[in-house]
Specification:
The chain is mainly beta. The protein is 1% helix and 54% strand. This is Lipoprotein.
Length: 326
């Protein structure tokens, strides 16, 4: 949730005027049993389900689609195969009633058939998911170091390096806000303005300085609670106002919905990290409903950072994150 370019990274990094990607069909027959994959068409992605209660089902997805409903414990395989050498990412789309299922070994590069994805389900009367909040310490949805004047952090993704610096409190559009200055290696430079007020991460707006100067701000400010219990949804409707030199401001009414889907341990180029899985949907007067899934660092050095983002068109993961906290 650091910085916005034309919009915020968590709330709006891909939303404005993006198109909605089609979702995969359910990979089950008329009786709800998984259809067998055809290995001749590509690489099969599968694994094992354990702990699933009698009479319950869990819906799995690969790369954000290809829904597969597992009705019992044991082996599973997605009907939709993937090309050899391509990426796969298995996640839980719908939890069974009264249970919470977590995925391990769920992502990687499919060099051959994959059979070691593990889906482990436990009753929800097991230890309660701590949610996204962390009080005064770093949490999934926030890290106070992002507001410490002079602190810096850089994020490298597919060779592109984005460098951020916390500039301290300033006045932005009549309110007190923490300014973050950011530059990246493809020639962009921008300032973003945020704050933490009453347990909510407040996002005011951003100013693009290079390469195409403009400003985008929220009216009213976008306020996202940093503490969301498991499966809790938060929705807010705002105007996203864009101001370009020599042109009248343009406001686009946008509705954003956040849903916390629980803790998930994932393996990325940064290592194996416990994350908070957060679903985000957005719909505006100029675009239909679109959906992202984000995995935010739950604790430790990567708390609050975007560890993985899955959009309708791609999945991205930072290759390296470096920080210098005062």
């Amino acid at each position: 949730m650091r910085g916005m370019k034309c919009c915020t990274k968590l709330a709006m990094s891909a939303i404005v005027l993006a198109s909605l990607a089609a979702c995969g069909d359910d990979d089950n027959d008329d009786e709800g049993n998984p259809n067998p994959p055809d290995p001749a068409l590509g690489v099969v992605i599968g694994g094992n389900v354990s702990g699933l209660g009698s009479g319950k089902s869990v819906v799995l997805q690969n790369n954000g689609g290809s829904d597969l409903r597992a009705l019992q414990n044991g082996k599973f395989a997605f009907n939709n195969v993937v090309a050899q050498g391509s990426q796969y990412s298995v996640t839980v789309s719908a939890q069974p009633d009264g249970q919470n299922c977590k995925v391990t070994n769920g992502s990687g590069t499919a060099q051959g058939d994959v059979s070691n994805v593990a889906v482990e389900c436990t009753d929800t009367n097991a230890p309660v998911d701590p949610g996204t909040g962390g009080g005064e310490t770093a949490s999934c949805m926030d890290n106070p170091n992002f507001r410490g004047a002079g602190n810096t952090w850089s994020i490298t993704t597919k060779g592109r390096v984005e460098t951020n610096k916390a500039m301290g409190l300033v006045t932005y559009r009549g309110v007190s806000a923490h300014q973050t200055h950011a530059v990246d290696t493809i020639g962009l430079e921008w300032d973003s303005y945020t704050n933490l007020i009453g347990g909510k991460f407040v996002q005011y707006g951003s100013q693009m300085l290079k390469s195409a100067p403009n400003e985008s701000y929220f009216s009213p400010a976008l306020e996202v609670p940093i503490s969301l219990p498991l499966n809790q949804t938060y929705t807010q409707t705002v105007d996203v106002v864009t101001v370009q030199p020599g042109a009248a401001p343009v406001a686009v009414k946008t509705t954003l919905t956040y849903t916390y889907r629980g803790r998930e341990t994932i393996t990325t180029p940064l290592g194996t990290i416990e994350t908070c899985k957060l679903e985000l949907t957005g719909e505006s007067t100029l675009s239909s409903l679109i959906k992202w899934t984000q995995w935010l660092g739950a604790s430790g050095k990567y708390a609050g950072f975007h560890i993985r983002t899955q959009s309708p068109s791609e999945t991205t993961e930072p290759d390296k994150i470096e920080m210098s906290w005062n």
